Amino acid sequence: MLQRLIGEDIALTARLDDALEQVMADPDQIHQVLMNLAVNARDAMPDGGKLGIETANVDLGKDDVSTRQTPFRAATF
């Protein structure tokens, strides 16, 4: 679906981690975020290019969240 949205001049690659943890998220919102990112990438590459999407588990330690104004807490995401 994303490939049709971004067109033929942009190569889409996806590297999806097989061992992802589950997250509590609204699937419709995740879909909308991906669509918006793809459209923004397409608009930023009028002459074509490459768009990569990658998923991975991320560990945020205390140092990662204490230095930023963020609602996150130290945890694995």
Summarize the structure.
With 77 residues, the chain is α+β, with helices and mostly antiparallel strands. The protein is built from three helices and four strands; from the N terminus they run αβαββαβ. The model has no long low-confidence stretch (mean pLDDT 86).
Helix content: 25-40%
| Major sheet size, sense and barrel closure | 2 strands, parallel
Distance between the termini: 26 Å
**Which geometry do the CA atoms define?**
elongated
Q: Structural class of the helices, strands and pairings?
A: alpha+beta
The number of distinct helices, counting runs of at least 4 residues, comes to 3
Poorly predicted regions are none
Total strands: 4
Strand order of the largest sheet: 1-2
Order of helices and strands: HEHEEHE
Radius of gyration: 16 Å
Which percent band covers the strand fraction? Answer: 15-25%
What average pLDDT do the residues reach? 86
